[in-house]
Specification:
With 335 residues, the protein is of the alpha/beta class. It has one domain: P-loop containing nucleotide triphosphate hydrolases (Rossmann fold), CATH 3.40.50. The chain is built from 12 helices and 12 strands. The strands form 2 sheets. It has an 8-stranded mixed sheet with strand order 6-7-8-3-9-10-12-11, with helices on both faces. It has a 4-stranded antiparallel sheet with strand order 2-1-4-5. α4 crosses α5. The longest helix has 18 residues. It is globular. The structure holds adenosine-5'-diphosphate and magnesium ion. The site of magnesium ion has 5 residues, from α1. One of its GO terms (molecular function) is ATP hydrolysis activity. This is Oligopeptide transport ATP-binding protein OppD. Keywords: ATP-binding, Cell membrane, Membrane, Nucleotide-binding, Transport.
Amino acid sequence: MSAEVSSPAESVLSVRDLTVRFATRRGVATVVDDVSWEVAAGETLAIVGESGSGKSVSALAVMGLLPTPPARVQGQVWLEGSDLLQASPQERRRTRGRRLGMVFQDPMTSLNPFLTIGKQVSEGVEHHLGLHGSELRDRAVELLGLVGIPAPADRLDEHPHQFSGGMRQRVMIAIALACEPQVLIADEATTALDVTTQAQIIELLGRLQEDMGMAVVWITHDLGVVAGIADRVSVMYAGQVVEEAPVDALYADPRHPYTQGLLGALPVIGGHGRELATISGLPPDPLQMPPGCRFWPRCTRRLDARCEHEPPTMWEVGPGHRVRTFYDTAREGSR
Ligand SMILES: Nc1ncnc2c1ncn2[C@@H]1O[C@H](COP(=O)(O)OP(=O)(O)O)[C@@H](O)[C@H]1O
Ligand SMILES: [Mg+2]
């Protein structure tokens, strides 16, 4: 799958064969299994999949933020020619915040309730770029302004509880952007927000990305927001990438039955509310993965014993479009 792939010149961050296992009381759970993806400067890669598919764990592994043990991380994480998984803890700390920024899933638990917003926004700048005094304060004001917080100078001395959910999420983005990282990983960055704030933040990130040439990895369980923001999409199921494609190809011609199900489960525009036709069944227990295709127990299009017993590998179905199936679901039609 990956042996022939070297780190492509134009990709700024390249994840290769990333595997994360957790030692648990019930045994070893492989929650991220041989995951590969890459993202280029100025590009947005969306990683989508149901809750529990391994999106956050893989992002935390890339950031070097998983405690080991209980986690065991294998693979390669190339950031411009160096493999972060081989880097020293000091080097990783230097990279984090400086070259790789991350917006975490929950802004309330990720902000320190006891520190002022100004302190939290300026910490990274102070640490990584060595700014102090009024210069540091100016940069904090600039950052809060950048993410659309009104009258930012007046709000530096306030605490997180004085900010609304949307404003806290903006603060999280300001912190992640503080040192102008080459790559921003946004994990469910807008999931907790109302639709209007969500749209504003997506618009803001798009603008910042254009200005800064940043690569963005947009992690979400909501395929609905992906169409408007991503260049490419990587679909995860039960710890594996099951389909990857340029965004238009994914929507026009999804090939994995899971992706087809996810798209079928999208609310219809102009329909009555968000009625979701969900994919029936549950994802497998990471401690008891099916030996064959992991989606087999839920798949409406499984064909024979091969799907049940043999794990499918990724194959190319179009330019940049790869899928983990045995059969060509396009040519098979809807049998
Ligand atoms: N510290 C941990 N120990 C054991 N299992 C974990 C730990 N953290 C996460 N997991 C498991 O890893 C899987 C993937 O979780 P996660 O990456 O958070 O999913 P997602 O972000 O896609 O919703 C889940 O089954 C979760 O229970
Ligand atoms: Mg998550």
